[in-house]
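@channel sequence for tomorrow's demo:
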Amino acid sequence: MRLIFIRHGETQINVEGKMHIKGSSSELTKIGINQILSTIAFLNKNNVEKVYSSPTKRTYQSAKLISEKLNISLDVLDDLKERDWGNWETKTWNEISIVLDKMSLNERYEFIPPHGESWKQMEERLKVTLKKVTDGSEKCVCIVTHMGALRGLIPILKNQDKSVSLNFSFDNGSITIFDFKDNKYREIIINDTSHLNNSKH
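structure tokens (generated this afternoon):
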């Protein structure tokens, strides 16, 4: 099975460099819509058979565009959602990084923001979700999710230490591909944005 991961399109919250609040109703900007539309030709060429989406509005809107353009089914999986930052949701990522960067890797992995979710807890639900997806009969699927979720997935997909997660960032509308065979994942491409050259308008 080929897994094509896409980070949702740009929102105004992304433009402002802020964190999305849980259940945010923020929609895609015009650029965000164009970013997702720019993935269609690539997804069609890969014969994507199904789209999976996080339930949040920005991911669902992105996934629905893909589903409608390719005329394929859309399945919402709650555990594809972004990490729950609890009371930290109103902070910018820079503000959060200042705190996290002072921690050891294990402390960071176990740390639970007030009323939120740890990296470890997010990783556990993402593993369950990957199992659900790869148990399917499709040969190629598209998974629309979030920056934090994608960073959480990287150590699982690459079968490497969790520290590798910190080396990656994911742009809005970017494409990341792993093939799954014989219970192993093989990296094809990570955070590819070559298709977005004409979407910045």
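heads up for whoever presents: Strands lie at 2-7, 50-53, 73-76, 140-145, 175-181, 184-192.
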